Amino acid sequence: MKRKYLAISAVQIGLTSCNVGQPVEDVDPSNPNCICTMEYDPVCVQGNGEILRYSNACQAMCDGYGQDDFINCPPE
Asked: How far, in Å, CA of 72 to CA of 74, rounded?
Protein backbone atom coordinates (compact mmCIF):
# COMPACT_ATOMS: atom_id res chain seq x y z
CA MET A 1 0.00 0.00 0.00
CA LYS A 2 2.86 2.37 0.83
CA ARG A 3 4.45 1.72 -2.56
CA LYS A 4 1.22 2.67 -4.32
CA TYR A 5 1.06 6.01 -2.47
CA LEU A 6 4.75 6.65 -3.10
CA ALA A 7 4.31 5.96 -6.81
CA ILE A 8 1.27 8.25 -7.02
CA SER A 9 3.11 10.98 -5.10
CA ALA A 10 6.12 10.72 -7.41
CA VAL A 11 3.90 11.07 -10.48
CA GLN A 12 2.11 14.08 -9.00
CA ILE A 13 5.40 15.80 -8.16
CA GLY A 14 6.71 15.08 -11.65
CA LEU A 15 3.60 16.50 -13.31
CA THR A 16 3.44 19.64 -11.18
CA SER A 17 7.08 20.47 -11.84
CA CYS A 18 6.56 20.60 -15.63
CA ASN A 19 6.33 24.00 -17.30
CA VAL A 20 3.24 23.10 -19.32
CA GLY A 21 1.89 26.66 -19.43
CA GLN A 22 5.17 28.28 -20.50
CA PRO A 23 5.36 29.54 -24.10
CA VAL A 24 7.93 27.90 -26.32
CA GLU A 25 8.67 31.12 -28.17
CA ASP A 26 7.83 34.73 -27.33
CA VAL A 27 5.60 36.47 -29.86
CA ASP A 28 7.35 39.78 -29.27
CA PRO A 29 10.91 39.25 -28.03
CA SER A 30 11.27 42.95 -27.16
CA ASN A 31 8.51 42.64 -24.55
CA PRO A 32 8.18 39.07 -23.23
CA ASN A 33 5.53 40.14 -20.68
CA CYS A 34 3.07 41.08 -23.42
CA ILE A 35 0.87 38.34 -24.87
CA CYS A 36 -1.19 39.04 -28.02
CA THR A 37 -3.21 36.89 -30.38
CA MET A 38 -1.82 36.21 -33.83
CA GLU A 39 -4.79 37.77 -35.67
CA TYR A 40 -3.95 40.01 -38.62
CA ASP A 41 -5.88 43.27 -38.29
CA PRO A 42 -3.17 45.84 -39.10
CA VAL A 43 -2.86 49.17 -37.35
CA CYS A 44 -0.36 51.94 -38.08
CA VAL A 45 1.28 54.59 -35.93
CA GLN A 46 3.58 57.50 -36.69
CA GLY A 47 6.83 56.87 -34.86
CA ASN A 48 10.30 58.37 -35.22
CA GLY A 49 9.36 60.10 -38.46
CA GLU A 50 8.14 56.93 -40.14
CA ILE A 51 4.90 54.97 -40.28
CA LEU A 52 5.07 51.75 -38.30
CA ARG A 53 2.68 48.93 -39.19
CA TYR A 54 1.70 46.38 -36.53
CA SER A 55 -0.22 43.21 -37.26
CA ASN A 56 -2.81 44.14 -34.63
CA ALA A 57 -3.62 46.77 -32.00
CA CYS A 58 -2.40 44.61 -29.11
CA GLN A 59 1.13 44.48 -30.51
CA ALA A 60 1.17 48.26 -31.02
CA MET A 61 -0.01 48.77 -27.44
CA CYS A 62 2.76 46.46 -26.21
CA ASP A 63 5.24 48.87 -27.77
CA GLY A 64 3.67 51.73 -25.83
CA TYR A 65 1.24 53.18 -28.38
CA GLY A 66 -2.42 53.84 -27.55
CA GLN A 67 -5.54 53.99 -29.69
CA ASP A 68 -5.11 57.77 -29.96
CA ASP A 69 -1.81 57.13 -31.78
CA PHE A 70 -3.37 54.93 -34.51
CA ILE A 71 -3.54 56.38 -38.03
CA ASN A 72 -4.91 55.03 -41.31
CA CYS A 73 -2.48 52.55 -42.81
CA PRO A 74 -1.26 53.24 -46.33
CA PRO A 75 -1.96 50.48 -48.89
CA GLU A 76 0.46 47.57 -48.72
From this structure: 6
The CA–CA distances, whole Å, from 49 to 59, 69, 76 equal: 19, 13, 18
Calpha distance 66→44 (Å, rounded)? 11
Structural domain for 53, as ranges: 25-76
Q: What's the structural domain count of the chain?
A: 1
Model pTM score: 0.56
Number of helices (H), then strands (E), belonging to the chain: the values are 2, 3
Tens of pLDDT along 3-44? Answer: 655 556 554 554 444 444 443 333 345 677 889 999 999 999
